Amino acid sequence: MADMTGAYFVNPGDLEALAAELRSQGRKLVLTQGVFDLVHIGHSKYLQKAKELGDVLIVGVDSDAMTKKRKGNHRPIVPEKERVSMICSLRWVDFVTIRDEVDDLGSLVRKLTPDVFVISSSTKDTENFEQAIRQEHGAYCKQIVCLEPQAQTSTTARIRDIVESGSIDKMLDLSQDLENVFSKHNISFKINKN
After folding, report:
1. Angle, alpha carbons 62-69-88 (nearest 5°)
2. Is residue 59 part of a domain?
3. Is 9 helix (H, G, I), strand (E, B) or coil?
4. DSSP character for 161?
5. How far apart are CA 46 and CA 29, in angstroms?
6. Can you tell me the distance from the alpha carbon of 172 to that of 24, in angstroms, rounded to the nearest whole number?
7. Is 180 within a domain?
8. What is the longest distance spanned by two Cα atoms in the chain?
9. Are the C-beta atoms of residues 174 and 158 closer than 8 Å to each other?
10. Alpha-helix runs per DSSP H in 12-154
């Protein structure tokens, strides 16, 4: 069932059974989901704030196929196994699963019926995203919390700036952000800058 750090569940059905067990113990479940490509400090702060809303944080990471479907053929930059491993390493994350392209964006919400479903105001999957989420998923969770971005620049904007400018300096800044996030969690992460 578990892989890597023990916080990664291949089968969402296994995670569903775990969620039911945790709920029977009176634990408040929080769910969030997304791509988490090029993990940066904004992702870490977002997940920390999500964890503060309950006892157990479950994160659905979009598969490579789902990411391409949502973000375009140029994404993800980081393969799903690496993205999952990075998210598993963050201390506020309790459990992680992969959302596959065969699932719709709300399948985890319906399966897990979390106490709190956390979304980001920066998500632009549909027009009026927050309103659409509340209408579609309100019946499956007790509370929907919309968090503002926790970084000044999104992953998409960082990638666009690097590509448009061709600037190695921006890539080095991004690598420093990544090193800072991982060093806070005692994870060795270095990019050779030579």
Report:
1. 10
2. yes
3. strand
4. H
5. 16
6. 47
7. no
8. 53
9. yes
10. 12-24, 41-51, 64-71, 80-88, 107-112, 129-137
Q: How far apart are CA 55 and CA 71, in angstroms?
A: 31
Helix (H, G, I), strand (E, B) or coil at 8: strand
All residues at 6 or more sequence positions from 75 whose CB lies less than 8 Å from its CB, including other chains: 35, 37, 67, 68
pTM recorded for the entire structure: 0.75
Query: What CATH number did the domain enclosing 82 receive?
Result: 3.40.50.620
Burial class (CB in 10 A: 0-12, 13-18, 19+), 165: exposed
**One pLDDT digit (tens) per residue for the chain, 194 residues:** 344 445 666 577 788 888 889 999 999 999 999 999 888 888 999 999 999 999 999 999 999 999 998 888 888 888 999 999 899 989 899 999 998 877 777 888 888 899 999 988 776 655 676 676 777 777 789 999 988 876 766 666 666 666 677 665 665 666 666 677 767 766 665 555 54
| Domain limits for position 136 | 2-151
Residue 144 in any domain: the answer is yes
Residue 11 CB burial class (10 angstroms; 0-12, 13-18, ≥19): exposed
Record the tokens describing residue 87, joined without a space. Answer: 């998210």
Nearest residue to 89 via CA among 182, 9, 174, 177 = 182
Could you give the number of structural domains in the chain?
1
